[in-house]
Specification:
With 341 residues, this protein is mainly beta. It is built from three helices and 24 strands.
């Protein structure tokens, strides 16, 4: 017979051995994540009211996870302890209809986030920025992603939407910096393992400009002259911007809408469009005595001063693009994109 003390020792030893034996069966997911960028482009807040959104964009974050456990099939609930976390940088404050708006590097501009699949607003509070890839355990506060979005081992995708919010008087400028840390964490943890991040880019301005399409007649030219490298006489292409206030830091980017680029991008030449009938002919664009560079942001060097109407002048001419230019029509379409503050 064993005494009570001996029985307790045996019981404690048995429990201790049970704990030791259970350790190899605990499974963990080892995850990596991707980096992404909220690219807002040219965001104009000129007509936005305080507390309203004036620009939005969405990115996809992909987690890739591998099974590090020894007995994963027997412990499916272990994986439910692991959640994906998108933690905003900084502290959020209410603004307009948004419960949490986070600061940006531009005065008067905030940013807010939500996960698209679950339509869940994201804040800096754990549980309000955490997403489970399957049904959570009891008291797990994470949002549950729709079925089929995640596999284990494998990948899990979060679609994060960001909105720029006008929070006050805006100082126009360039958006930059990290706005979300991408991590994953175990249930009960207060911090996650950072595996990526989301940055932001774009230009925020408060000026609104309009511009009307322009059609230019390039005249006529002898095919033999174009063949011999003699372009036609240049014709003025005047693009007029009408703005609600004088634009600042005005730049342009010209892109061919029809007809491929000929030669180097900075030759400023595009081929005759599909509706043009002349062979080995194209159109060259110039500004300030030099060929333009296609698809390249270029300062106009125009000081608007107090003027709300700005004329940006280009010149265009027909030019030969091959050994022999034939008779026929020459047609081209290009689009000019202007950036300003």
């Amino acid at each position: 017979m064993y005494s009570v003390q001996e029985m307790m020792k045996i019981l404690i030893r048995a429990l201790f051995l049970l704990v030791l034996c259970s350790l190899p069966y605990v499974s963990y997911a080892n995850c990596t994540g991707t980096n992404a960028t909220f690219a807002f482009g040219n965001a104009n807040a000129g007509s936005a009211s305080i507390g309203s959104s004036f620009a939005t964009t969405t990115v996809a974050i992909t987690y890739t996870c591998s099974d590090k456990g020894a007995n994963a099939p027997s412990w499916p609930t272990v994986y439910n302890n692991w959640s994906f976390q998108t933690l905003p940088v900084g502290n959020g404050v209410p603004a307009g209809n948004f419960s949490k708006v986070f600061p940006t590097n531009i005065g008067g501009v905030g940013i807010t986030f939500k996960e698209v699949l679950t339509n869940s607003p994201i804040s800096e509070t754990i549980g309000k920025n955490s997403f489970c890839w399957s049904t959570p355990l009891v008291n797990d506060p994470c949002y549950v992603l729709p079925s089929g979005r995640c596999t284990l081992p494998g990948t899990c995708v979060l679609n994060i939407q960001a909105d720029l919010i006008k929070t006050g008087n805006i100082s126009p400028g360039a958006l930059s910096g990290k706005v979300i840390n991408v991590s994953y964490y175990a249930f009960g943890a207060t911090t996650g393992t950072i595996v990526g991040g989301i940055n932001m880019t774009g230009m925020v301005g408060t000026t609104t400009c309009t511009i009307a399409p322009v059609t230019v007649n390039l005249g006529t030219a002898q095919p033999r002259n174009l063949t011999n490298g003699q372009p036609s006489s240049p014709k003025l292409v005047n693009l007029r911007l009408v703005c609600d206030k004088p634009p600042q830091n005005l730049s342009y980017q010209m892109s061919p809408l029809s007809g491929a680029v000929v030669g180097n991008a900075c030759d400023g030449t595009m081929r005759n469009a599909g509706t043009g009938t002349a062979r080995n002919a194209g159109i060259r664009f110039m500004r300030e005595g030099a060929n333009i560079c296609w698809n390249t942001a270029t300062p106009t060097n125009i000081s608007a001063g107090s003027s709300k109407v700005i004329d940006v002048q280009f010149f265009a001419q027909m030019i030969g693009t091959g050994r022999t230019t034939s008779s026929g029509s020459v047609v081209g379409n290009a689009v000019a994109t202007f950036t300003y503050q």
